Structure formats: structure tokens, C-alpha cells
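Page 47, continued from p. 46.
Same chain as before, 157 aa.
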Amino acid sequence: MPFYTIAQAAEKFGLTAHTLRYYDKEGLLPFVQRSSGGIRLFSDGDLQWLALLTCLKNTGMPLKDIRRFIEWIKQGDESIPQRYEMFLEQKKRLQSEIETMQLYMKRIDFKLWFYGEAMKKGSLAALEQDNAFRKERDKRMKELEQRPVSPVCVKQK
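Result:
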């Protein structure tokens, strides 16, 4: 069975060795073995765990919830329902964030279209004189207004 050093494991996930040491100190790497000299030895299974840990962190799961998940793993099969619910809730949170980001993307797309049209016309003033543009702009703005978003992305010129 091959083992990886902390530097190799960190590189595979775009992390630093410092981050992995922090995760270990926080109890998030409970299954990683150590050599007789105390050096962390990451197995393929540890790398799979690290992939999941990175996924959970990158999707906004707090460390305390990841620790709870580790405790459930240690409990065995009796905690499968709790683990399932945890992932279901994380999926719901992530889906909500994706939907919000898609709304923000639509607003960004609107501005790209808006300024692209302004560049074609040469100025915002010339653009405002174009009836077809104004009609299309108003239609697109109405579509955006039907989608609630946070005040961060309010309509502006």
C-alpha cells in the first residue's frame, strides 16, 4: 500500500502542508497514520477522505459539523441516518447558493449585453435614443425584477 507525505497530499488538493497540519490538530484527519518518527502517512483511503473534507469545506460546511460527521463515522452503522440527513441538508444549502449565483450571473449577463450595445452605438446617450434597444432593455429588466436577489445586485446604470 503506497503512502504519501503531507506535502504530496497537500499538493494533490491544492492545499498547504500547514492547512493539513491544522486539520489534523482540529481532529479532522483522525484516520491518518504516523510513522515511528511521528511523520503523517497518507494512504489512498486518507486521500479519499481528504477529497470529501475539501468538498465539504468548499461548500461551506463548518468545521464543527465536519467533526460531528467524523464522530458519526466512528459510531458505525447506527449513525447512517444522521449522516444521510447531514448530506441532504448540505445539498439543499448548496442548491440554494447555486440558484443565487445563477441569478447573479443573469444580472452580469444583462450588464454585458447593455455595455456591449453601448459600445456598438458609441455612447450611452446614443443607446438611449434607440427605441428598439429601450424596448429590449425594458423587457430584460422586467425578467430580472421577477427574480428576487439580495440588495447586493440592485439595478444600476
